[in-house]
Specification:
Layout (H helix, E strand, L loop, with lengths): L11 H11 L5 H27 L14 H8 L8
Length: 84
């Protein structure tokens, strides 16, 4: 999963993607925030991989459903969606 896709669960990565969604402008601040979201998503995935070494899928069941899943997919797969 990348920052351009959406998850049916509101995981930490999905929350970062939603922040990225809100900063789709061309200002320097928007670009900086998108870059930070991208970096944070990578770090979150690395952390999840490390935690899985100790207890496989220990995170399962923590997160609620992403109610805007379909809208998120549509937005993030559009040609003008910006990442980083």
């Amino acid at each position: 999963m990348t920052i351009r896709t959406a998850s049916t669960l509101r995981s930490p990565c999905e929350i970062l993607r939603k922040i990225n969604d809100r900063f789709q402008g061309d200002s320097e601040r928007d670009k900086e925030i998108r870059a930070l979201c991208q970096e944070a998503e990578r770090a979150t995935k690395k952390l999840a991989q490390e935690l899985n070494k100790y207890k496989k899928e220990a995170w399962r069941g923590w997160w609620k459903a992403n109610e805007q899943f379909k809208e998120d997919v549509k937005l993030r797969l559009s040609d003008n969606y910006k990442v980083g």
